[in-house]
Amino acid sequence: MQLRFCALLFYVIVVIVLAFPLESLAQDCPTCTATTSNTQSGGTLASPRAVSNNNTGWNANFPVITGISRFVNPGYYRWTAGGNNTIQIGGLILESGVTLILDRSNDGISEAFNIIGGCIVVKNNAVLDFRYFTAMESVNICVEPGGKVIFDSRRGGAGVRDDFTFDDVVINLQDPTATLEFGDADIQLLGEEGLLINGWSGGNICEDDVPPPGGVSGNISWDSGTINICEVLNLRVLPVEWLYFNAGFQATERQVRIEWGTAKEWESSHFEVLRSIGNIREWESLGDVNAMGWSDGPVDYNFTDTQLPLAGGVVYYQLRQVDLDGKFSMSKIVSVRIPPNQKNSKSWGIYPNPTNGDQLKIDLLKLEGLRNERIQIKLIHPNGVIKNFDGINSDLLSGDILSHLKINSKGVYVLLISTGIEMEYHRLLYK
User: Fold this and answer.
1) What is the pLDDT of residues 29-54, one digit of tens each?
2) Collapsed DSSP state (helix, strand, coil) of residue 379
3) Where is 76: in which H helix or E strand?
4) 0.90 exceeded by the pTM?
5) CB 37 within 8 A of CB 73
6) Is there a contact between 133 and 154 (Cβ–Cβ < 8 Å)?
7) What confidence tens digit (pLDDT) does each residue in 231-262 have?
8) CA–CA separation, 191 vs 350, rounded Å?
9) Which of 116, 135, 229, 234 would be 165's cystine partner, CB 3.0–4.6 Å?
10) Strand 220-221 and strand 216-217: pairing?
11) CA-CA distance, 115 to 137, in Å (whole number)?
12) DSSP letter string over 202-218?
């Protein structure tokens, strides 16, 4: 089991963001909307209500693969997978007072549950109790104040039956009373993102792979049956204690001001500012900001993003804090909604303009202006030479044109952009 884990953990990022008195970095819970609700009355601890794997007890059809299942009434529920089946859902919402046990009716070696691509919300005084092998991928888990999530297999030590796998999973603990409890659990961290926990209120970490005494650190606890708890508590000691991280749109300058602060720093080299437009998967680096290095007091930093998409939309920002030895940790993610640029009525925009050859973006300003047509661009050189570009992805075309500019002379270029029957002229200064 350990060998398999080590092979997979070649590039895992596990960041525990501490909750400080000045400002916790626990993120606000994203909107999580149920697609179906279980309206049965809850049972008791000794006799939980059995959740049916058909339409019984649900206000709509039984949860589909991508569905978010909501449990409404207080009490205990037990939802089990049977045979060799695995129940796959998009997520869960547990209202206040609900305790939901996810289990398997036998001792099979298949996952009891796969939770993929959705969200989980555990509200005040609610408990989500994972009792059997479960896999999660691309899931955002929000534990509200007073809520609890438990990973404790009833078949601990029995091979994969106590595996709990996390692949691009984010857990937001909303305050110190929002808790995580690990029992008989072999914690498996997969992929590049693994597991990100925001809002940990502890400070005790492992030394020489030995967990802190007492089985608890802040709002995370474990026992002797927990495997790889040290990978959760300290993949490494974080060199920076974060105070805040936020971003705001400045309409007059049409730019985003990004600000963050640290409480302490140890051997910190720099911060890399990352941006993704429209999603949190396609990140690009905007630049670096040198760190203080060593500091026992608060330090404030800022960065300005002036190259905003002309079409507007939601822009996401994240910081990569890099040590002097090259190790790094990631901040939380913040988002800013950018209004479209209304300076002209054209369908396409080109920025930065002028460009020095470092970057170039050809952006569609009017989303309704393109209906899967191919994009054809004629680049007319200052000396009249014409270079043709053709494709369906404006980002790829932007890169091709930028590469072409870098090997040619500077001056004023003309771009003739055609899509279907529409055609636009743009001037571009390469200096």
Assistant:
1) 667 888 888 888 999 999 999 987 77
2) strand
3) strand 75-81
4) no
5) no
6) no
7) 887 653 445 778 899 999 998 888 999 999 98
8) 36
9) 135
10) antiparallel
11) 6
12) -----BTTBPPTTSEET
